[in-house]
Design a protein that fits this description.
β2 and β3 form a beta hairpin. This protein folds into two domains: 219 residues, Rossmann fold; 51 residues, no CATH class. A six-stranded mixed beta sheet has the order 2-3-1-4-5-6, sandwiched between helices. The protein has 350 residues and is α/β, with parallel strands linked by helices. The protein has ten helices and eight strands.
């Protein structure tokens, strides 16, 4: 019996030991798997660290490259030339100046102006290790704020003075004499003398009068300009007198259609910008502007005119004397009536 008990105990001990060994083996297997996973993570982290070190090295190399480029970059300076625009409310001066400063501007959303400020880079010139940006700054003063404009011109340098008048109001279909007279009163000789203060006379390079809304005057371009100048002749005379010895330039055009606007600002560039401030792009723009402003006389493209009817030789006895119909050459915007001339009589033809 004792032997049986001893054998049973031994078997239990052996079984327990075998179970313990199995459990330990399973735990060892799990630990080995965990160790392998940990080693894989360590290798992945080491590879990631190596990749980050490579990227950091490349970033440092690029940073060094850009620092060297920045050190080699020419120093940039800025020269500003100021143009003051003056005019009664609704004359179109804001449309005129804003469209030049920003060709993409929406002119339909323009409200009455007190004071607006626009800038446009005119040229960029590099001399040695220095780049100079030449900028036109346009100060647009509303008609009811002339006193503020006078103060501005009294305390700062102004290189260009732009007076804008028009031939009619916002919805005008024809020339409005009453509006023209109101503008002549606003820019009377007594008022003009306040604009031409000593500081302005010392710094200003050109004075410009732009007569806007030329499309309200019928006729050929030459007739339109002649009529517009005639209507504003008192202002032209007074401006020339007050501006002397600064040259007065008169333009007739339209801010809405763009007529004469490119010539206007080409004039400012030529008069204000120093000769050493022209870059290739500016020279090309000025060349294009001048080519656009040139017009070929239509008369030179026509055949020689026919002689008067009375000067024609008599036709054969079996044919009547020819009747000649002459019409005026109709240029852009010309609404002049046709003229018919036959056998020495002249009459209007509707």
């Amino acid at each position: 019996m004792l032997l049986f008990v001893i054998v049973a105990v031994v078997l239990l001990v052996v079984t327990a030991m075998i179970g313990a060994v199995v459990v330990m083996g399973m735990k060892a297997s799990k630990l080995g798997s965990a160790l392998e996973q940990s080693e894989a993570k360590v290798r992945a982290l080491e590879e990631a660290q190596h990749g980050m070190e490579e990227r950091l090295a490349r970033a440092e190399h690029e940073a060094k490259h850009y620092r060297e480029k920045l050190e080699q970059r020419p120093e940039s300076t800025r020269k500003t030339y100021r143009i003051v625009a003056l005019g009664m409310k609704g004359t179109g001066k804001t449309s005129l100046t804003l469209k030049w400063a920003n060709p993409l501007a929406d002119l339909s959303s323009i409200d009455g102006t007190k004071s607006e400020h626009y800038e446009r880079n005119v040229s960029r010139v590099q001399t040695g290790n220095e780049v100079t940006e030449h900028v036109f700054e346009v100060l647009d003063w509303g008609g009811e704020h002339m006193a503020s404009a006078v103060q501005e011109m009294s305390t700062s340098d102004v290189q260009g003075l732009l007076f804008v008048v028009d031939l009619g109001g916002k919805d005008a279909k024809a020339v409005e004499p009453a509006r023209i007279q109101a503008q002549l009163r606003d820019f009377s000789p007594e008022s003009l003398r306040y604009f031409f203060v000593p500081r302005l006379m010392a710094s200003c390079k050109t004075v410009v009068l732009f007569i806007n809304k030329s499309d309200l005057v019928p006729g050929t371009p030459a007739q339109i300009e002649e009529e517009a100048r005639r209507l504003f002749q008192p202002l032209i005379t007074n401006l020339a007198k007050q501006a002397n010895p600064i040259e007065l330039k008169v333009f007739v055009g339209s801010a809405n259609s763009g007529h004469s606007t490119h010539v206007l600002f080409a004039h400012f560039v030529e008069k204000i910008l120093p000769s050493d401030a022209y870059d290739d792009q500016l020279l090309q723009r000025l060349k294009t502007s001048k080519e656009t402003s040139k017009s070929i006389s239509l008369i030179s493209l026509l055949a020689p005119p026919l002689p008067p009817a009375d000067a024609l030789t008599s036709g054969p006895s079996f044919m009547p004397k020819p009747s000649i119909r002459l019409v005026t050459l109709r240029g852009p915007g010309d609404t002049a009536s046709f003229i018919q001339k036959a056998t020495g009589k002249t009459k209007d033809v509707a």
